[in-house]
Amino acid sequence: MSFKGMELERTYEPFHIMLNEHCVADISITPHARGRYADRILQEGEAAGELDAWIWQRLKQRRIKSYQAPEYNAYLIDEDIVMIAEFNRLEGVTSLSGRPLDVMVVVSFLGRISVLPQLRELKGFYARTVQPSRKKPGRKRRRRK
Question: Contact 78/133 with Cβ under 8 angstroms?
Fold first, then answer.
C-alpha cells in the first residue's frame, strides 16, 4: 500500500517520567550510591549490571514511590528498597507541554526494609545512626603546686 499524498501524524514518545511533581529526564548516580547499592542491596549471585537502566525501568513502570516525610527525599523501590534522591533542574530545557525537566541524582541506598526493619521509621533510623559529632569543649584546669 502506498502512502503517497498522505501525511502521517508524527508521534513523540515522552523522554521524561513524572515522579511526584518532578519531570525526570535523566538519572545520575553518585559513586557513594553505587557502593551502597553493591553493599546493601545486591544479593549473593547477582551481578551489578546497569544500575541506571534498572532505575529508569522502575520509574517507567511506576514502581518508585515517595516514602514517608518529604524532608528526607526518600523513595521506595518495589515496596522494599529505600533510596535517597535529589532533583536538579535542567536549565533551558522543557517538556513539550512547557514544564521544566529535572535530573534525578541518586545520593544513597539505605537498604532493604525486608532486611532492616528499622527503615520503616526513618526519623528513628536517623536518630539511631547519626550521632552528634560536636562535643562540648572542656576547660583546662591548672595544676597547683
Answer: no
